[in-house]
């Protein structure tokens, strides 16, 4: 009974961390859902195998259902093998290839890695030098590429035109309207670069909990600024479809992103294939980088891409236009 109570207590704490939105327990979301589930269900599983306690068996089922409902990893893994589906391949020819790359801790993005992908839109965050974006754009798309920058962040497009960039107050994110070829309605592109989380990941340290609580509060303000900027932009330039991509530095299960998910559809959540984690690049366990979109756009496929030398995997999505 003691082991079962331990597992149930961890479940209650986990649920509080997921749905209460309290910044004080933000550090609990440092671990991926599947890892928390395996660790927390172990005591109950031992109690079931050893003493055949029905409460322990129920706790195992409870944790399993919670992991399935909260995490999107299982859906992504379940889609493995669908990459070669003829319908998806046919749909891909009618889509825009979107890729978001966090260049933190990297010198440059090799153009030869992206050339086989034929990206239509590239979101870049945390460039060491903004000239790297211009160099990459020329290597991929030739002379006079269409590019917009803000600080160390950039958006590059293969075709069409980019309007003036609108910085978002409070972080390095910015908004720009894109008029693609062969479409009448433009698309609003949002390059997101939130404040990176603290390096301290020692859950036994009070400083770790404090630092992550402060980061959660900062992310909440930055998300509010982003959504408010999109609302104001819509008032000035009209309501048009939005593609939002970049570095969020917090897992999608974090309650701070609930207002964002009410507006945007997560590309990986709707069409992701594979594990989907992006950080750290050596052994990814957290999905801190994402691509989102609004209707009537639709993602038909989403995945990650390893780029040597970078701290995180790039994220990709095939977005079907109007």
Task: Give an account of the 3D structure.
By secondary structure, this protein is of the alpha+beta class. The protein has two domains: 2-71, no CATH class; 80-320, Deoxyribonuclease I, Chain A (4-Layer Sandwich), CATH 3.60.10. Helices cover 39% and strands 21% of the residues. It is built from ten helices and 13 strands. The protein has helices at 2-19, 33-51, 54-70, 73-78, 86-92, 111-114, 131-141, 206-237, 258-263, 267-271, and strands spanning 96-102, 121-125, 146-150, 153-157, 161-162, 166-167, 174-179, 187-193, 242-247, 265-266, 289-293, 298-305, 314-320. Strands 5, 6, 7, 8, 9, 10 and 11 form a seven-stranded mixed beta sheet that branches. It has a six-stranded mixed beta sheet with strand order 3-4-2-1-13-12. Helix 1 packs antiparallel against helix 2 (33-51), helix 1 packs parallel to helix 3 (54-70) and helix 2 packs antiparallel against helix 3. The protein is elongated, with a radius of gyration of 21 Å.
Attribute tags:
single chain; 322 residues; alpha+beta; Deoxyribonuclease I, Chain A; 2 domains; 7-stranded mixed sheet; 6-stranded mixed sheet; 21% strand; exonuclease
Whole-angstrom Rg = 21 Å
User: Within the CATH hierarchy, at the fold level, what is the topology of the largest domain?
Assistant: Deoxyribonuclease I, Chain A
Helicity, as a percent range: 25-40%
What is the CATH architecture term of the largest domain? 4-Layer Sandwich
Major β-sheet, in short? Answer: 7 strands, mixed
What is the structural class? alpha+beta
| % residues in beta strands | 15-25%
Total domain count: 2
**SSE series:** HHHHHEHEHEEEEEEHEHEHEEE
